[in-house]
Amino acid sequence: MSSTASGKNGTWRNWGGNVSARPAREVTPASVEELAAAVRRAAEDGLTVKAVGTGHSFTSIAATDGVLIRPQLLTGIRGIDRDAMTVTVEAGTPLKRLNMALAREGLSLTNMGDIMEQTVSGATSTGTHGTGRESASIAAQIKGLELVTADGTVLVCSEKENPEVFAAARIGLGALGIVTAITFAVEPVFLLTAREEPMPFDKVLADFDQLWAENEHFEFYWFPHTGNTNTKRNNRSAGPEKPVPPVSGWFEDEFLSNGVFQVAQWVGRAAPATIPTIARVSSKALSARTYTDIPYKVYTSPRRVRFVEMEYAVPRAALTETLRELKAMVDRSGLRVSFPVEVRTAPADDITLSTASGRDSAYVAVHMFKGTPYHAYFTAAERILTAHEGRPHWGKVHTRDAEYFAGVYPRFGEFTALRDRLDPDRRFQNDYLRRVLGA
Fold first, then answer.
1. Which pLDDT score is estimated for 5?
2. What single DSSP character describes residue 317?
3. Residue 69: which region, alpha, beta or left (left: phi > 0; alpha: psi -120 to 50)?
C-alpha cells in the first residue's frame, strides 16, 4: 500500500514524515467483532488503542505505543439507500474508492477536500474539509456513525439515536471510540465547472466578499514573496462535460504542480535565497483554464510533493485582515517560503469540535516542503492566526492546548464530559489528546 504511512521494524510513520511511533502490537481486524475484541484485549493488557488511516495527519493524533489498529480490511460499501439518499461505508474505505464507487452508481458527495487518499474515518475524525459557501466539511455530510467504545460496545448514533454522541463523534479526534462505519448523505451526480485564473493578491482581498458570495466554492492560493494569487471557482453546471484535456492536464497538474514544483522545492531547500525568484516564476506559470467534470474530479487533485502543513480556521469576517498581517510578516521577516498559502471557506456547522462549529469560517493553510525547517514560519503565522481566535485543524501542525481550546470552542466542555462518560479509563488516550483535551 504505497500511500499508507508505515515504516521498518515496527515503527509507524506518517505521510509528512514528521511523526513516528512504535506500537506494542498491530492488529488488522477483518470485522467489527474482531475490532471490538482487540479493544477488550488491549484493556486486559493495560494498553491504549489507536486506529490509524493513511497517516495524512501532520500531528501525532494517531500515534500510539499501545495497540495500533489498521482498518484496511474494514473497507467497502455496506449499502446504498436510494430513498434516504445515503451510503454506508466501512471506516477504512479510502475516499478515492468511495468517490469512484458512488460515481458508478450515479451518485456523489456534495463537497470534498482537495485530496482523496485518506480513509473516510481518518478524514472525518480530524475535520477534513474543502471549500464552500453553503456546503461544509466531509464530516458535516455524515448522517450516521457506528462506534466501538472503550468497553467493546458497538454504539450506533445519528440525530435520533444517541444524538449527543452523534454531535461530537462526527469529528471525534479518535477520543470517543473507534469509528467502524459511516453513513453519508449523497445526491445524484452533478457537474461542476471550474474556473482557475491568476488574480492580484490585493484584488482578491478587496473583492473577497463578492467572490465568496457569487460562487458555490471559492478558493485561492497566494504565493509568498509575490503579489500574485491563483483563484479557483467551482459552480454547478448544466454541462456539457468538458474535462481537462489529458495533455494540458498532465502539463498543469503533473508537470507544473508536481514535477517542476518538486524540483523548485529541492532548489529552494538547497539555496533559500532563490525562493522569491522561484515564487515569482511559478506564480506566473499557471495560466487560466476552465473545465467541467463530475465533482470529485474537480474538487481533488494529486499531491505528490511531500510537505508539512499548519491550517487555522478564523472567523470569515477576519480573513482579509489576517492575510494582510501574514503578508506583512513574511515581507518583513527574512523567511523564505516556497509553498503557496491556501485559503478556503466553510459555513458554520453544529459539530461540537468542528473548526467551523457555530461560526462562518475561512481557512488559512501554510505549508513547508518536507525536510525544510518550518518552525520559525509556523510560529510567526500561528501568532497572527491565534490573535484572531483561530482554531487549528486537528490533523495539522499546531502548538495549542486544552486551555486554549476551552476559550475558542464554546462547547469544549460538552466534548470532554462525553469523553469522560465513554472512555473513563482513557483507553484511546495518547500524548496528542492529553495536550488538546486535557488529562
1. 47
2. G
3. beta
Q: For position 185, what pLDDT does the model report?
A: 98
Give the angle 357-360-362 at the CA atoms, nearest 5°.
105
Query: Which amino acid would we find at residue 331?
Result: D
Sheet order of strands, 307-315 included? 289-293, 191-200, 228-237, 217-222, 341-346, 361-369, 307-315, 391-392
* DSSP per residue, 134-164: S---SGGGEEEEEEE-TTS-EEEEESSSSHH
Residues ≥6 apart with Cβ < 8 Å to 85:
185, 186, 187
Residue reference for cell 492536464: 249
Position of cell 486551555?
403
**C-alpha angle 171/176/179, rounded to 5°?**
65
Calpha distance 187→236 (Å, rounded): 13
Coil, helix or strand at residue 233? strand
C-alpha cell read off for 101: 464507487
Say if residue 140's pLDDT is above 60.
yes
List C-alpha distances in Å: 213 to 114, 218, 246, 315.
21, 9, 32, 16
CA-closest candidate to residue 131, choices 315, 345, 429, 394: 345
Is 196 strand, coil or helix? strand
- The average pLDDT across 112-123 equals 94
* Count of Cβ atoms closer than 10 Å to residue 199 Cβ: 16
Q: Look at strands 77-81 and 86-90 and give their pairing.
A: antiparallel
Query: C-alpha angle 93/368/110, rounded to 5°?
Result: 35
What pLDDT, on a 0 to 100 scale, did the predictor assign at position 247?
A: 66
